[in-house]
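DUF4920 domain-containing protein
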Amino acid sequence: MKKVFLFLVLSIVATRFSFGQQKDILAAKPGVKYGKEISASNAISVAKLEKELTQKNAFHGKITGKVVEVCKKKGCFMTLQRDGEEPITVRFKDYGFFMPSDIVGKTVVVEGSAKKKEVSVASLQHAAKDLGKSQAEIDQITQPKKDISIIADGVLVIK
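Structure:
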């Protein structure tokens, strides 16, 4: 009887942890903040970030952009729109917070560090899988790419 009770308790705890995290994420509405407390002041556009990174290897500050995708599994990353190029991936410092799926299409300010780096084929394929891409689309990723990567301490939805 003790084993059955223990099994039942562990099952409930495991279920709580697997589903509980997503429920705690606030809906993406203007003014909602995730992670570190930030404001929209002094944020630069994604286009200006790209120009900054042609002169420097890294940038630390605030960037504003439109969210085009979010990790479908649990919101562990999102992407920001770029003109004429693939979106910029934004991950969250120490996986300390996650994004809701309704953040797609919203304009946000992220504060953190951006840098140019080469992204491996394995990382690109993993991200494509998390975004819900088809296996055919994933299989087409065969080359690493140089891109901008952002690690955000905080995110603020502005519209």
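The chain is about 30% helix and 35% strand.
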